[in-house]
Amino acid sequence: MEKGYRVKEYRMPVKRYVRTLRLRDNAELIAEYRLRHSRGKIWQEIVDGIKEVGILEMEIYIRGTELVMILETPADLDLDAAMGRLATLPRQQEWEDYMSVFQSADPGATSSEKWQPMERMFHLYD
Predict the structure, then answer these.
(1) pTM for the model
(2) What are phi and psi of 96, to 5 degrees?
(3) CB atoms < 10 A from the CB of 51, how many?
(4) Mind listing the pLDDT tens digit for each residue in 88-125?
(5) How far apart are CA 90 and CA 22, in angstroms?
(6) Which residues of 15-48 are buried (b: 16+ CB within 10 A; e: fewer)?
């Protein structure tokens, strides 16, 4: 049976962004990538930086080599500016370079260069 995922409620208008990235097709690398994103293994500076630039929630979903990231932000947050600022925070580029070993991405790329936006083509609500 498929399980759903609880969504946090905010007392403000929010925007959702969806991005995608592909991992290298290597079971050992994928297992290590998953481990590095588990609680207690992801670097605290990375989590702190994500929150510091105004991102309310970040989720990453995986299926095989395909990743989908969902970001929730305050509706008035300039995401491009926030991601630009994130790239300058302590250890962020070190993390990106480390993660590039697992990802089909260029070494030295920032998070916003690796994770490509997805276009919403359907939604149910008004």
Answers:
(1) 0.91
(2) -60, -40
(3) 12
(4) 999 999 999 999 999 998 888 999 999 999 999 999 98
(5) 25
(6) eebebebebeeeeeebeebeeeeeeeeeeeebee
